[in-house]
Design a protein that fits this description.
alpha+beta; Nuclear Transport Factor 2, Chain: A; Elastase, domain 1; 5 domains; five-stranded antiparallel β-sheet; 34 strands; about 20% helix
């Protein structure tokens, strides 16, 4: 969690075709391009998938169900390659399939390019219990330059030498470099690159795990960041606790063979790990208190994830294990205490947790409960979304660790004001009441002037410099405060947005599911908002209070729009996501004539917008349900762009209807009709304004509906919609 840097969404598209009896619908989370619908192949799907509405997945699923989910997911990718920016079915590799407790299947896919992995190129295909496509989290790198050669000019050894030549102290490294060849896009350019991971765990302030990307053709450095995922804090405040130990040859060891967690020691060194023992199994010595706290912390983190989220260990499979038990038994999830001397940090290094003793002034031993949970959650994140540790994805990585640090502390001791403080037990032990970070009020943190109000708690205040890996600790205050508002409720001091709290239990369920099933390595703040909304929808429903409060919490910290009718203030826009950025949600699309792109060629603003028609012989609609306050007479405004291949100047062959419908879908009023006769130049929008006077106090649907005939394509583009 140290703020010192040692060295320095994606939209949606709906497809209304069917495959083997399964409707394929690409929903929020997948970027799409404007293109005619491709024909889906016939057959080729397991007979079990064609069971109509009968569930084909059950909670947790089995091997056959996971195979079926992979087959359906691959089929979706295969028929939408161009839309997804891929060139062929060989451009993907399924990393894993998980069927969750709700019977939803999540297929996590790694993008390939000519056989090589693409850095941060990922997608997750989400299926409902009937095998229907629910939505897609799309992090694919679109349309990689096809003439990019994947035959490296440099060898691995040459790439390592190039990386070492750019590192300040080759002799300081404590492990051999790890290297792999991949394709990456950086600064808008595609590269064949070697990813060279260095490791310097030497107890100095320069302890780091630098990752350098070396161009495999030129040998130049493309990019670098530090992958050492750090924390700061201490404990020794847990009092008398019970810990799991084991015995061997007359000695006792802090090794819990039931949970498979163990605690070891560097004995104030940096290279050799020692086993810790006691003769009477009463761990009450002064030096043993650090061991007890670290071991207790790891055990409680294990229990929290197992009990609350059904997760077995950091990797979900009882591991990872670093050291074996003293009795020669199972490998253990390992915590190592007493790293170096006066070391003011703790970190997750990809395989184990390591804790320093602190210097006694700035920090005392870094083994507090929330710090242990913070570090172990870095591990959970690595095995799930694997959020890249820089910029906004890195800030999310830090924030998710802070959130679950707080939730584990709450799980063990109950909720208090200290729940929402990070590292309060260890930070400046001579000063009572302070903390390293504050989820309830991030501005209370001392960030040494990186921003005018450290830590920022609103997107407009975010740090945009290069220190701290692009602000991974600094900017974590923004999503931290979003979680706090979601759990506890309140009004944001800057935005004035009011959030109704849903309680930390429900908020934690949403945050965990978002991490496990809806986030990828490149997820940014907007993507995290969509991921948590997808999780809230899956768990509680899209019309639930939990979903609405999740929207409001992100809106409060300046990420995305507020829910309809929410957020406070006069002149509130009753529509949610009228700018269509990141996804089309909560608008509901249906039919082959209603589409969405997150990266279209002709937006009015931003990059995302829905479009209608775009091919012949189609129909479709898009609606959002809203409640109009009693006595209100709001006006619907939106930007419209129409292009058409129709040559007539008199006949409306293709039409877009703007309608007001009841919650049951009954037509109440046609507000306006547009057609091929309104055609203009692509991207040349015209603002439309329509009155909804007379409908105050009613809950209605605002709907856009299209019909295109069998010849000459018309496309209707809609953007920047408001209802005030």
């Amino acid at each position: 969690m140290s703020k010192k840097h040692p060295n320095s969404m994606l939209g949606a598209r709906r497809f209304g075709k069917t495959l083997g009896g399964l409707s394929l619908v690409l929903a929020a989370g997948c970027a799409a391009s404007e293109m005619p619908e491709e024909n889906l192949p016939e057959g080729g799907m397991e007979e079990a998938a064609a069971q109509g509405s009968r569930p084909i997945f059950t909670p947790a699923g089995d091997a056959d169900q996971r195979t079926l989910a992979e087959t359906i997911s691959r089929a979706h990718i295969a028929v939408n390659l161009e839309t997804l920016g891929l060139d062929g079915e060989d451009d993907i590799e399924v990393k894993r399939v998980r069927i969750d407790e709700l019977s939803l299947a999540h297929t996590r896919i790694q993008q390939k390019f000519k056989g090589l992995p693409v850095f941060e190129g990922e997608a997750i295909v989400h299926l409902d219990r009937n095998g229907h496509l629910r939505d897609v989290t799309d992090g694919f790198v679109k349309r990689i330059r096809r003439d990019l050669s994947v035959s490296p000019t440099l060898t691995e050894k040459q790439a390592i030498r190039a990386a070492l030549a750019r590192y300040v102290c080759e002799s300081c490294l404590t492990a051999a470099p790890a290297v792999n060849l991949l394709v990456m896009r950086h600064g808008g350019e595609d590269h064949l690159a070697y990813r060279v991971a260095l490791r310097r765990i030497d107890s100095t302030h320069d302890t780091a795990m630098p990752v350098l990307f070396i161009d495999a053709h030129s040998g130049e450095e493309i990019h670098r960041y530090d992958n050492l995922q750090t924390a700061q804090g201490t404990s020794l405040y847990n009092g008398t606790v019970t810990i799991g130990t084991s015995s061997s040859s007359g000695k006792y060891y802090p090794e819990d063979l039931t949970r498979k967690v163990g605690t070891f020691s560097y004995a104030n060194g940096t290279s050799t790990v020692y086993r810790i023992s006691d003769t009477d199994d009463v761990w009450n010595g002064t030096d043993q208190r650090i061991v007890v706290d670290a071991h207790f912390g790891a055990s409680m983190v294990y229990d929290y994830y197992k009990t609350v989220h059904g997760r077995n260990g950091i990797d979900g499979a009882g591991g990872p294990v670093a050291y074996a038990a003293a009795n020669g038994g199972a490998g253990l999830i390992s915590s190592i205490v007493r790293y170096s001397t006066f070391y003011n940090n703790a970190f997750w290094d990809g395989s184990q947790m390591t804790y320093g003793d602190g210097d006694g002034t700035m920090f005392s031993p870094l083994v507090s409960l929330d710090i242990a949970a913070h570090e172990m959650t870095h591990g959970v994140t690595e095995y799930e979304a694997n959020l890249t540790y820089e910029n906004e994805s890195g800030a999310l990585n830090e924030s998710w660790s802070d959130v679950f640090g707080a939730l584990v502390e709450r799980y063990v001791y109950g909720e208090s004001a200290d729940t929402w403080k990070i590292g309060e037990d260890c930070y400046t032990p001579g000063t009572t009441g302070d903390a390293l970070r504050y989820m309830d009020n991030p501005h209370n943190a001392n960030d040494n002037g990186f921003t005018s109000n450290d830590d920022p708690d609103h997107y407009s205040e975010r740090y945009t410099g290069t220190e701290d890996n692009g602000g991974v600790h600094i900017n974590s205050g923004i999503p931290n405060h979003a979680f706090y508002l979601l759990a506890k409720g309140g009004t944001h001091h800057l935005s004035g947005v009011r959030v109704t709290g849903i309680g930390a239990d429900d908020a934690g369920k949403i945050w965990y599911k978002a991490l496990a099933d809806y986030m990828t390595a490149s997820t940014n703040f907007a993507g995290a908002r969509q991921a948590t909304l997808s999780a809230a929808s899956a768990i509680f429903g899209a019309s639930s209070a939990q979903y609405t409060s999740t929207q409001a919490a992100w809106c409060a910290v300046g990420v995305g729009e507020c829910p309809a009718g929410g957020g406070g203030g006069s002149g509130t826009n009753l529509l949610t996501n009228g700018t269509f950025e990141g996804s089309v949600s909560p608008w509901v699309l249906s039919g082959t004539g209603a589409l969405y792109t997150n990266n279209g060629n002709y937006p009015h603003s931003g990059t995302g917008y829905p479009y209608f028609g775009n091919t012949v012989s189609v129909s479709g609609s898009m609606y959002q349900q809203i409640t109009i306050p009693a006595g209100a007479s709001p006006t619907l405004t939106f930007q419209l762009n129409v292009t058409s291949a129709e040559s007539t100047t008199t006949t409306q062959y293709d039409q877009l209807f703007v309608e007001l419908r009841s919650t049951a879908g009954t037509l109440l009023k046609t507000l306006a009709t547009y057609s091929n006769l309104n055609k203009g130049t692509a991207g040349a929008y015209v603002q439309k304004s329509l009155s909804l006077a007379g409908y105050g106090g009613q809950t209605v649907r605002i709907q856009f509906r299209t019909t295109n005939d069998s010849s000459a394509i018309t496309t209707f583009r809609v953007d920047t919609a408001e209802l005030k």
